[in-house]
Every structure is written in C-alpha cells, then in structure tokens.
Amino acid sequence: MNMFAGVRGWSALASVALLAFLQGCVALAPSHNPPVAAMPASPEDFLSRAAAQPGLGPQESAFRPLALSTYALDARLALIARAQRSIDVQYYLLQSDGVGRHFLRALRKAALRGVRVRVLVDDLYTADTQELLADFEATPNVEVRLFNPFPAGRRLDATRWGLSLLDISRLNRRMHNKLLVADGVLAVVGGRNMADEYFLQHASGNFADFDLLLTGAAVPELAAGFDAYWNSPRVHALARLLPSDEPPAVRQARFDAATARSHDTLPPLPATAQDLLGYGPVSAALMHPPMKMLRGTVQVLVDDPEKAAGRAEDGDDPHTVTQQTLTAILRTQRELLLVSPYFVPGERGMAAIREGRRKSVAITLVTNSLAATDESFVSAAFARYRPMLLREGVQVVEISPKVLDREAAAHRPGGSSAGRMHVKGFVIDRRITFVGSMNMDFRSSRLNTEVGLLVDSPALAEDVIRLIDTLRRLGSYQLRLSTDDQHVQWVETHDGQAQVYDDEPGVDLATRLKIFFFSRLISEKLL
Predict the structure, then answer these.
(1) For labeling, which of 5, 29, 277, 478 is most exposed (least CB within 10 Å)?
(2) Closest CA to 425 of 399, 444, 400, 452
(3) Residue 360 neighbours by CB under 8 Å, 6+ apart
(4) Most distant CA pair in the chain: distance in Å?
C-alpha cells in the first residue's frame, strides 16, 4: 500500500486549502518521549523454552516461514497469548477492522496480565483508528506512539492534510516497517500489515504475502531496531497528540465494547494440518518443543528513523535497506528471483539488472498485473520498464487476480475475492533470501523507512521459490515482446493451451486510458 494510491485525497486537499490559508498551518511540537529499552530474553519464560533450538550457535538464527495467511495470524496471536514480560509491535498500517480489533484486544489481554505492551504505528492511516488506539492505551502497561504524525485536524484526512500544507515534504516520508517481538526471544518480520486484507478477511480484495517467525541471534538486533524508532524524535506519544480528560475506566469500557465481537470475524484454522511448505500452526508448535525451524545466518537490515528527515533522498546513503540489498543483488553469480508487488527500479535498479545480465545471470521478476494491483499508477510507472526488461532477457511474470481464489474460497465463507500479491523479497543463487517490508521502488528507496532480513539458508530459498511457483500456477501471465519487437504481450496458459493478449488483461479500455493519461502527469517520486 502506497501513500498516494490512485492519487486519492487531492480533491479533499482542495476543499480545505482555504481553511488552511485562513487559519495557518500548524507546526509539530518537539517530541518529549522518555527513553525506554527492550527487555532482554529470559530463559525462564515460556516462549524462551518453547523457542529453544538445541545446538543453535550464538551467531545463528532459526526461522519458520509463515506463508498461509491464517497461520500468519495464528503466529502473531500465539506469541501475544504466551508472552510473559514484553511485546513490541511496529506497523505501517493497523486498521480498525475485524483483524485489527482482535489484534488489539489480544494485546490488551496480555497487558492486563502484566505484560508491557508498546505499540508503534505510522500516522498516515490513523484518522479512523486513533480513537480506538487511545481507548486501548487506557489499559495499564500499554503505551502507543505514532511515527511522523500530523499535528492538527487529526480526525479527518482532509483536515490533516489541509492544515499541514507547508509540511508536505515531511509528511511524505513514512515508516513502512512491520515487526512484532515477544519476550525478546521470538519475532515476526515480513510484508503483512494488521488489517483484514492481509489475512483473507476482506470482502473484495486480499493479499498473498509472506513473513518469517524467527529466534536466535537476529532477535536482539530487531529489538534494538525497534528501540531506535521508539526513542526517536520522529515518534510522538499518542496521549500528547490526542489528550483526553475521560477517566481510564470509561475509555477501557468503550474499547471493550468496540472489540467484544472481533473474534467472531476471524478465519478458522484450515482443516489441513500443514501449509504447502509443511508447517502447522505456531500455536500448536509452541506446545510441543522444539519447534520445526530452519537454521542459518541472518543479517538484520533496519533503516535509521532519521531517513524520515530526508537523509536518503539523494539515493546515495549506503546504510539504507535498499542500498544494502542492492549490494547483495550485485553479488549474484547465477540466478536471481525478484518478487515485488510494486516494481519501479529507476536508473540504479536497471543498472544492477543490466550488470547481472552482462554476467549471464538468469533473472526472473514476479510482480502484480494491472488487474491485480491496488496501486494502478505504480503499475503504470512499471509499464515504462517492461520493454527494457524484456529486451535485457529478464523473464517477467505478472500475477493475475485469480491467485487467491482457491485459498479465499477455502477460508472465507461465501467464496473468493480478487487476489493481489504483496510478497516482498528476492532469492540469490538459491541460497540468500531477502524477507521484509521493502518494495522495489523510489518510495522504499528514498522516502519510507524499512526493515528486512538477508537470510543465508538454501532451505529457506527453496521454500520461497516453491511458494512463488505456486502463486504463478494459481494465476499469472508470462510477458514477451511481439514478433516485431514493438509492444508487450501477455501469455496465459491453461491445460497446455496458451492465450495471448495484446493489451493489459482483465482491464477495460476506460481504465487503460486513465492510466495512460495520469502516468504522464505523475512523477515516480510520488508513487
């Protein structure tokens, strides 16, 4: 999900521009957060004992793929339910929907039994959730902070932006990280936000995504990364931004009423005992240690929160997640699989691809088709690169909206919905795998902060390749150049029969014309 999806919000900005002119824009007051540190793991805690991996070296990590959406939600809820001392949560999006409310209710239950709960959310999409978060924070042992917040007009998107017209550059930089750490011993990192559509619960559109559950050497580094954000001057306490005179008991009762039925909307665990990679629910695995996990070395990549101050906008900061992953990609010797829902490589990305092809590296790119994407203008920007990629010999695959039909039908009563791929990662030489929040576009590279893992594990690499191959079989198009080398064609294969499309499949003429027009007006830097 990108900030300017469909360039939404611009008409609302115009409607409040006069208000901003008359009242003046409001500046964000300095942050005054007392520094707080992550709690180290304790060998006596339940999760430490459940996560123990006999023989795991001090520099190693153990990890478990979370490919199935229901198992990914189960893992988060299981960690929350079993935590005894601390839970740290960092998300770009935490919605006030069925999944989001149940997630918060589970966190409140943990806090009521004495667990310290810290919740850090990017402020971009909190207009509809901040009241719920404020009531949630009335619970003892809970604190909520917001990254790079809007200073005024907080209850409506239009007034938020309208009263911040002189601060657009700052507000254009967001915290895209996605992380959960429980008792300092187990963490979940990946592409999923906390909202219905990431767990097959949205009525009209859901995401296929991927996370890792991990323990070992990487977890303290992830916890330290969380602390860097939590204590950053870019982060502000929700209680200061949205002060309340109501008694805590009133707010707690309101939160309880708002979330009381959230469990009713959750998906049941699938009838099968394992997902397609051979892993069962984490909630069950925690009860029968040692858990089935892979092993390897993990390099933790975390953007400095000061990236939101503009320090990476020139694209030459070697410490960003994007630049470190680009360095890894340039070391590819034989085979590179790129997976990104939003792919806008820019000059540097294309240079890396050309260098790979110069070394005869086999490169495959998997991304969303225009019909599948939730960011049509990003897809339009990607369209500029398709002919170049194909001429370089890159195998380009676009996922179709059919990709989630089977899984959605199995886990959502009433059938299926449009599917979109949200997996973010790459696999180098069937050995090194990147898993994290980073998209391969300008925004992730220079504006948003990200978190990710470079995992050295051939077994994990094969799991990710198997997952992507499954998505391709469920519904995808193989792209090629026409015989005259002038335009792109989409090839869809069913039962050995190929159907060729000369235009974007699954998209009507009006949509194609709209994308064609606006793609020439909108800079890649805004997507």
Answers:
(1) 29
(2) 452
(3) none
(4) 72
CB 50 within 8 A of CB 289: yes
- Strands 86-91 and 116-122, how do they pair? parallel
Q: Say what the pLDDT of residue 270 is.
A: 67
- Dump the DSSP string for 212-259: EEEEETHHHHHHHHHHHHHTSTTEEEHHHHS---S-HHHHHHHHHHHH
Q: How many CB atoms lie within 10 A of CB 322?
A: 25
Contact 145, 178 (CB under 8 A): no
**SS3 track for 298-312:** EEEEECCHHHHHCCC
What is the pLDDT confidence band of residue 218, given thresholds at 50, 70 and 90? very high
Report DSSP letters for 277-332, one per residue.
Answer: TS---HHHHTTSSSP--EEEEEEEEE--GGGGGTTTTTS--TTSHHHHHHHHHTT-
Question: What burial letters (b/e) apply to 81-100, b meaning 16+ CB within 10 Å?
Answer: ebbbbbbbbbbbbbbbbbbb
Q: What is the pLDDT of residue 16?
A: 44
The number of residues making up the chain comes to 527
pLDDT at residue 415, rounded to an integer: 37
Strands 488-494 and 418-421: unpaired
Whether the per-residue pLDDT at 429 is higher than 90: the answer is: yes
Walk me through the domains of the chain, giving residue ranges and CATH numbers. 63-269 (3.30.870.10), 312-526 (3.30.870.10)
The predicted structure's pLDDT at residue 315: 81
User: In this structure, how many other beta carbons lie within 10 angstroms of the beta carbon of residue 2?
Assistant: 20
What is the distance between the terminal CA atoms of the chain, rounded to a whole angstrom? 10
Q: How far lies 497's CA from each of 184, 405, 492, 503, in Å?
A: 52, 21, 8, 19
pLDDT at 449: 98
Rounded-to-integer distance, Cα 318 and Cα 459, Å: 29
